[in-house]
Amino acid sequence: MIAQLILSLSILVVLHEMGHFIPAKWFKTRVEKFYLFFDPKFSLVKKKIGETEYGIGWLPLGGYVKIAGMVDESMDLEQLKAPPQPWEFRSKPAWQRLIIMLGGVTVNFLLGFLIFGMMLWVYGKEYLVNDKMEYGIYADSLGTKIGLMDGDKILSVGGEKMEEFSANMLRRQIVLNNAKDIIVHRDSQDVTVNVDPKFIPVLASNFYKDYTIIGPRIPFVVGEVSEKSNAEKAGLQKDDHIVSIDGKPMMFQHEVMKAFSESKGKTIDLGYTRNGVEQHTSITINEKGKIGIVLMTPHDFKWTAREDYSLASAIPAGFHDGVSFMGDWFKGIAQIFKGKVKAKDSLGGFISITKLFSTSWDWEAFWRITGILSFILAIMNLLPIPALDGGHVMFLLWEVATGKKPGDKFMEYATYVGFALVLGLLVFANGLDIMRLFGK
Length: 440
Hints:
13 helices
C-alpha cells in the first residue's frame, strides 16, 4: 500500500511540476530547480543540467520547481533584492505568469480525465444488473438500521432508479443528495423505506467508509475445489450448493462465510445439494475460516453485463466520469459546511490516503485511485491560499483586472500566512488519522 502511494504521488507530483516547468521554459523563464519531494538541508539525488538542478528530496510531501524571481516555497528572498532580470518570473507579463501558475493544475485535470478514459478503454466496465439479482440483497447491521431487509430488491434511491447494483450508489444518494427514501420490492409489493437524516454523517464517516451496508445475495455454490484441501477430503465437488450448517438452513455466501468464521478450527456438519439431491458431510474449518474452495460469482450466474469501449468512446466517457466525481467531491465539501457531515469524521491525511490502495498490487485499482488523487490535487491546489497555485492565480487575476501588481514584500508576508494555513490543514487532517489509530 505504501509503495503504491509513493508511486502514485510521484507520478502526480512530477507531472504537476512539469505543468509549471514547460510553460516557464516556453516563456524563457529560468527554472533553477526541479524536485520530486522536498530537500531541506540535503538531497537524495541531484544533477544539474544546463541552468536547472534536477533532484529527489528526502521529505515525501510533494515536490516543486524553483522559478527565478518568484516568491515560492523556497522563500529565497535574496534574489528579489536585485533589480529584475529579463529571465525572471517577476519580469514576465501577467498573462504569461498566469499560464505558468495554471500549468500544474491543468495537467492534473487532464491527467485525471485521461486515466479515467484509458481505464474504460483497457479494462471496460462490468457491473451487476440490478434486475438480474433474483435473490435481492442482504442487509448488514447498518443496512437493517436504515430499514432494509434480506431479500429486498432495491428499485430506486432518492428517486434515482438503480439499474446497476451498487452499494456506493446507495451511500452516494444518501450522503451527497440527501435521499429521503428507498423504494424496494418486498414480499410481492413495492415498499417505501424512509431514510432518517441521522444516517448522513454515519455513512460519511471514516469509520464506516468500508462498511458493507448491503450486498447481493449470492448462493453459496462451489466453483472450484482446491487440491488436498478440507473440502476435497470431505468430498465436495464443483456445482455443489450449500444449504445448511449443523442442521441450520443457510444457502447464501454472506451467511455461510459468517458461520465458517465463527467455527474456525471446528468440524461441522455441512448440508449441500448435488444434482437436486441433498447430502451431508463432515468438514473441518481451518483457522482462517476457510475450507479450500473458490465460489461461483455473479458473473458465473450471468447476473453481470459488460460494456467495452473503443478509444473514441472511452475519452468522452472518462471525461463524464471525471466531471461526475468532482461534482460529488464538491457536494461532500458542501455537506461539511452545511453541518450535515462532521469534518473530524470524514476528513483524513496520509494514512487515510494510503488505505485507499489495495493490500496487493492491483493495477486497475491503482490507476483508478491515481486518477481520483489527480483531481483532488488539482482542486486543492486551486484553493485561493497564498503558497498554493490558487493563491498566486488569485493575485495575478487581481493584477490583470486592476493593472496593479502586488509588491514583493506583500507577497512575502502573504506566502508566510499561506504556509501557516497549509501547515495547519496538514496537521489537522493527519491528526485525525492519528487519533483514529488510537480509537479516539
